[in-house]
């Protein structure tokens, strides 16, 4: 909602384009900027000229560099939102932008609500009135979408686990509150040792969730995987195999894939945005040429590139160009058309990709596709099976909420150990419940009162 | 030609008295009407004031210049400090009062106010005549006034139940106000039915106190009031005893005679003040329940038996009371009963306690669906102030949830669905550490002075106190104890804390082992002043929490600043959910903050609303 806090979010759709934009808006924008941005020389930044492109380095909490970026400062009210805005353009991969965003959030910004930048822009008079209805529709649509996603998640295991922790905390809080509000009624005294035990149990569970959160966030937001290769090497056929249905137009004529095909697909439980690119080759057709340029940008921003080579023909100059381009990027080397006699020489590939996995497939017969899926998943989230990760925190907002609850529960624990007064225990427990309520959507204040009367015989 | 009045207050209970005092202090000629002149500030239920939350309200009303605190201090016969070890947020006072003295002092005080006229009369009609409201009494005479405060308590269509017996009645055998309720309903006011109850009163000389546990009062250095010099009385004891299985068996065997269980009562009762029937039914595993025996006053033999509220037939009440140790030979003075009455459906209330669509008419107290003398007084003073502001043509006065329990109370009343008479609780307040008893004047006295409910002398006294507190806060910031000094030695002796490096008094006071009194003892015993020191100490010890609450409050304030026009047309706003639109149209919240607290209004609805309000205010 409309607040005075400073907000931040990734403003470009995940994985698309060579650069990605992270935007910070609010009174604290520069304070936060000063914490996370450094000169390329490593010095702190003291002056913020308005509307000028500057080169800088984003650092994390420990001061370690995260990414080389360019940034712009827009002074209020001459910015999109009408507030102080700092716009940071980093390298486009989702992982990378997420790291930049994490630094910003750790420096004190709050993750923006869907549509919040637009809303602030409107409230600060940066959009004219005729745009109001469009804005409303936008916010409504985005919030509804977010709610649908949240709802889906809430029906899942995370909701269950959060609910269990809420119940435990509520069970602790209710007798404390009852004793505070009804000191002359018969409410049993607080058993500090038992309470301590319960609080540590809840903390341990939440800490587990937090530790898993990093990976969970990838799971939800879909990693970007780009399929690259020279024309007619079988990219679209491979995409179709991965999608399990005919999507891209597959023809033997080079250059038929003019538009990029992006599909979200569930690869062994990992949501992946699969992008098929036009072949990388130099020709004079301007449409094709633009496509090639775009393809390169996409590969720059990808979390993983599936580089496809034709096993049935020797490497072409176009293949060599791709090999040069991919050097140093996260790639999986796929040899397609292994249903035909192998004619390709592998040595140049081995030399160029000493670290990469190699895999033989046939996009035509489907051979090797299962292995490919498993390998993609492993590259993206590691080797541990999802079965060992029964609950995953999949949104930055949820992660923040859990972290906040943990901080408050640490206070409760300290309070129990050091015999703080009950009002402080109640205040901190309640705040922790409120933090978890940001995930569960549960508001406990009425529930606490109901429980007091249900559990204790109150009343003179 | 009869006297002309600026404002009429209907009802002289705890809400009405505060309202009349407020309008009179603001300079308005006030007519205070009571259905029975003998029953001004009558306490129809227990003879006690305060407790957690309630005590906070009393302190707040007092800080604003109200009457309940002063009057309780004067009429108290026992005072106890509650929750003394549970932290500053929940510390509370509870007083036993002499009911008759309470009424006598209140009546005396009001009669001395030159701008207040008290008059006995039952209002039977309230009509709009030109720009005025015409009150018609049952005797036929009329008064035309520009502003009215309705504070009729449980009198509107009151109906008392004692077993199968039921009859129209106000509390404790008083005349009910049926005509007014019917009249208002015919004019479009919507009512709902609530229920409350009270236990029997018994004769002191019939009780055996040897079988009970004595509950003496505390010797305290202060009462409720910020302004009245504290004059403690020789405390009178209360007594504790318990029900047992025999009591419960009698109640269980006669449930069919209880109006709550045989369907005679349709009104909704309270959970925090349940009848003994409810306790026995809802908590069958409990083999006993507490019974507190409280004197109704110094000069009466009547005793209140807290915990045995009942609407069973008098014969059954007599039977089960006798099973309680110490009450075996009980003589009932008057039986317990349940009372049903009309309350104004809350969607008609605005947060300045004005009734929507009735310009200049306000309501306060139990008629608004609350319970308790303290809750009534809190609304009374706010309704009175707002009636005064209305007469002056000034902006309404409301208190935020972060400013006062009064704010929490009224905001809850106008935004939440209350299915029982509302009682304040500390757990209802989000800003608990900020809303303490000890800083009520720091929070509210400026307002009281602005509205002239606080006199110049009182304000002067307050300002001096505030300055002393600021001075002390600075002193603690700027003074240090150095290792090896005599002060450091004494501190170790007193508290066990060893000063290892130069430490400010403020840092020392943050330690749980150190109390402010310890520091004064070491540094300057002459500076010790418990009442102010409590404020200083809480401010320093809980600074982190206070800052957290202040931040939360600032966020809330942003939403509260966004006013929704009273005539805002929700039907033109696209995209509001059906439920939200329905609730918003019914409740008509004054601000976006309030809208957000209405159940069923989602964040998306709020965003939509925010934009449309900004839009309509710009165009």
Instruction: Please tell me what the overall shape of chain A is.
Output: globular
Question: What proportion of the residues of chain B form beta strands (DSSP E)?
Answer: 15-25%
Low-confidence segments of chain B, given as residue ranges, are: none
Biggest β-sheet strands, sense, barrel of chain A: 7 strands, mixed
Structural class of chain A: alpha/beta
Task: Round the Cα radius of gyration of chain B to an integer and report it.
Answer: 26 Å
Q: Per CATH, which architecture of the largest domain in chain A? A: 3-Layer(aba) Sandwich
Quote the beta fraction of chain A. Answer: 15-25%
Name the helicity range of chain A. 40-55%
Q: Please tally the β strands of chain B and state the result.
A: 23
**What's the shape of chain B?**
globular
List keywords for this structure.
heterodimer, A: Gyrase A, domain 2, Four Helix Bundle (Hemerythrin (Met), subunit A), Rossmann fold, 3 domains, 6-stranded mixed beta sheet, 13 strands, 46% helix, B: 619 residues, alpha+beta, 5-stranded parallel beta sheet, 23 strands, 38% helix
How would you describe this structure to a colleague?
The complex is a heterodimer of chains A (460) and B (619). Chain A is globular, with a radius of gyration of 27 Å. In chain A, the strands form 2 sheets. In chain A, strands 3-4-5-6-2-1-7 form a 7-stranded mixed β-sheet. Mean pLDDT of chain A is 78; it is low at 141-151, 246-258 and 384-390. Helices cover 46% and strands 16% of the residues of chain A. Chain A is built from 14 helices and 13 strands. By secondary structure, chain A is an alpha/beta fold. Chain A has 3 domains: 7-126, 2-Layer Sandwich (Gyrase A, domain 2), CATH 3.30.1360; 133-218 and 395-441, tRNA modification GTPase MnmE domain 2 (Four Helix Bundle (Hemerythrin (Met), subunit A), Up-down Bundle); 228-385, Rossmann fold (3-Layer(aba) Sandwich). Chain B is an alpha+beta fold and 619 residues long. Chain B has 21 helices and 23 strands. Chain B has a 6-stranded antiparallel β-sheet, with no helix packed on it. The longest helix of chain B is centred in the C-terminal third of the chain and has 23 residues, at 456-478. Chains A and B meet through helix 3, helix 4, helix 5, helix 13 and helix 14 of A and helix 18 and helix 21 of B.
């Amino acid at each position: 909602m409309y607040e005075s806090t400073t907000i931040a979010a990734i403003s470009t759709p995940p994985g698309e384009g060579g650069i990605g934009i992270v935007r910070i808006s609010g009174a604290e924008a520069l304070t936060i900027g000063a914490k996370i941005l450094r000169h390329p020389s490593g010095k702190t930044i003291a002056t913020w000229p308005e509307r000028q492109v500057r080169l800088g380095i984003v650092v994390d909490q420990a001061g370690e560099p995260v990414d080389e970026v360019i940034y712009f400062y827009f002074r209020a009210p001459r910015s999109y939102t009408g507030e102080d805005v700092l716009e940071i353009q980093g390298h486009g991969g989702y992982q990378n932008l997420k790291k930049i965003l994490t630094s910003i959030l750790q420096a004190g910004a709050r993750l923006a609500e869907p549509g919040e930048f637009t809303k602030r822009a409107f409230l600060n008079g940066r959009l004219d009135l005729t745009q109001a209805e469009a804005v409303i529709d936008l916010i409504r649509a985005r919030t509804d979408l977010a709610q649908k996603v949240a709802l889906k998640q809430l029906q899942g295991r995370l909701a269950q686990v959060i609910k269990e922790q809420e119940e435990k905390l509520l069970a602790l809080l209710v007798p404390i509150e009852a004793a505070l509000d009804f000191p002359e009624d018969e409410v049993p005294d607080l058993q500090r040792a038992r309470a301590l035990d319960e609080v540590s149990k809840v903390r341990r569970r939440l800490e587990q969730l937090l530790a898993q959160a990093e990976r969970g966030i990838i799971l939800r937001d879909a990693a970007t995987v780009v399929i690259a290769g020279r024309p007619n090497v079988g990219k679209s056929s491979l995409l179709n195999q991965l999608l399990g249905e005919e999507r891209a137009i597959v023809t033997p004529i080079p250059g038929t894939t003019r538009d990029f095909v992006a599909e979200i697909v569930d690869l062994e439980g990992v949501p992946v945005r699969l992008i098929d690119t036009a072949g990388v080759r130099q020709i004079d057709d301007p449409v094709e040429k633009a496509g090639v340029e775009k393809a390169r940008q996409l590969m720059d921003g990808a979390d993983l590139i599936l580089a496809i080579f034709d096993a049935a023909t020797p490497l072409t100059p176009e293949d060599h160009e791709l090999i040069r381009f991919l050097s140093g990027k996260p790639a999986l080397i796929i040899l397609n058309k292994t249903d035909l006699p192998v004619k390709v020489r592998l040595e140049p590939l081995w030399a160029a990709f000493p670290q990469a996995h190699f895999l033989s497939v046939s996009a035509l017969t489907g051979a090797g596709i299962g292995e490919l899926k498993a390998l993609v998943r492993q590259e993206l989230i590691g080797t541990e099976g999802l079965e060992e990760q029964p609950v995953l925190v999949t949104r930055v907002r949820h992660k923040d909420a859990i972290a906040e609850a943990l901080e408050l529960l640490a206070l409760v624990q300290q309070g129990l150990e050091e015999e703080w007064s009950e009002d402080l225990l109640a205040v901190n427990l309640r705040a922790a419940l409120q933090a978890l309520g940001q995930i569960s959507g549960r508001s406990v204040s009425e529930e606490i009162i109901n429980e007091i009367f249900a559990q204790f015989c109150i009343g003179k | 030609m009869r006297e002309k009045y600026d404002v009429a207050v209907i009802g002289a209970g705890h809400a009405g008295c505060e309202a009349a005092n407020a309008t009179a202090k603001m300079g308005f000629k006030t007519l205070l009407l009571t259905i029975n002149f003998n029953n001004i500030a009558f306490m129809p239920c227990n003879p006690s004031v305060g407790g957690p939350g309630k005590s906070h309200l009393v302190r707040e009303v007092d800080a604003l210049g109200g009457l309940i605190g002063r009057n309780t201090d004067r009429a108290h016969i026992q005072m106890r400090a509650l929750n003394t070890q549970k932290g500053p947020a929940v510390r509370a006072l509870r007083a036993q009062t002499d009911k008759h003295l309470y009424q006598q002092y209140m009546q005396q005080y009001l009669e001395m106010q030159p701008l207040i006229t008290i008059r006995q009369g039952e209002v039977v009609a309230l009509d709009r005549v030109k720009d005025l409201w015409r009150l018609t009494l049952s005797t036929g005479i009329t008064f035309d006034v520009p502003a009215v405060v309705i504070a009729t308590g449980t009198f509107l269509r009151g109906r008392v139940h004692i077993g199968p017996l039921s009859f129209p009645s106000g509390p404790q055998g008083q005349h009910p106000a049926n005509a007014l309720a019917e009249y208002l309903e015919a004019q479009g006011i919507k009512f709902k039915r609530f229920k409350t109850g009270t236990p029997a009163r018994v004769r002191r000389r019939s009780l055996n106190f040897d079988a009970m546990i004595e509950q003496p009062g505390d010797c305290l250095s202060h009462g409720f009031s910020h302004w009245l010099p504290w004059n403690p009385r020789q405390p009178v004891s209360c007594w504790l005893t318990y029900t047992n299985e025999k009591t419960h068996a009698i109640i269980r065997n006669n449930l069919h005679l209880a109006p709550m269980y045989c369907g005679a009562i349709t009104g909704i009762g309270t959970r925090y003040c349940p009848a003994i029937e409810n306790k026995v039914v809802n908590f069958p595993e409990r083999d006993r329940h507490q019974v507190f025996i409280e004197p109704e006053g110094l000069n009466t033999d009547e005793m209140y038996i807290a915990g045995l509220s009942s609407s069973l037939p008098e014969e059954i009440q007599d039977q089960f009371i006798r099973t309680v140790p110490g009450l075996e030979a009980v003589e009932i003075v008057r039986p317990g009963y349940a009372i049903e009455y009309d309350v104004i459906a809350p969607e008609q209330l605005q947060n300045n306690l004005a009734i929507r669509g009735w310009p200049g008419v306000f309501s306060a107290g139990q008629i608004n669906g609350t319970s308790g003398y303290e809750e009534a007084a809190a609304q009374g003073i706010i309704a009175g102030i707002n009636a005064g502001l209305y007469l002056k043509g000034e902006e309404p006065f409301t208190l935020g949830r972060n400013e006062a329990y009064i704010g929490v109370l009224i905001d809850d009343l106008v935004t939440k669905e209350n299915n029982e008479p509302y009682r304040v609780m500390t757990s209802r307040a989000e800003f608990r550490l900020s809303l303490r008893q000890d800083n009520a004047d720091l929070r509210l006295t400026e307002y009281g002075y602005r509205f002239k409910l606080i006199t110049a002398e009182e304000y002067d006294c307050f300002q001096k106190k505030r300055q002393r507190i600021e001075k002390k806060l600075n002193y603690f910031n700027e003074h240090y104890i150095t290792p090896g000094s005599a002060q450091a030695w004494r501190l170790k002796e007193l508290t066990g804390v060893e000063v290892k490096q130069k430490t400010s008094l403020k840092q020392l006071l943050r330690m749980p082992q150190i109390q402010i009194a310890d520091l004064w003892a070491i540094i300057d015993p002459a500076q010790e002043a418990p009442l102010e020191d409590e404020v200083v100490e809480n401010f320093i010890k809980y600074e982190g929490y206070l800052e957290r609450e202040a931040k939360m409050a600032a966020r809330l304030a942003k939403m509260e600043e966004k006013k929704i026009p009273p005539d805002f047309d929700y039907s033109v706003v696209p995209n509001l959910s059906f439920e939200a639109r329905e609730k918003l149209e019914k409740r008509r919240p004054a601000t976006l903050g309030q809208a957000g607290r209405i159940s069923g209004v989602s964040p998306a609805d709020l965003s939509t609303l925010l934009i449309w309000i900004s839009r309509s205010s710009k165009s």
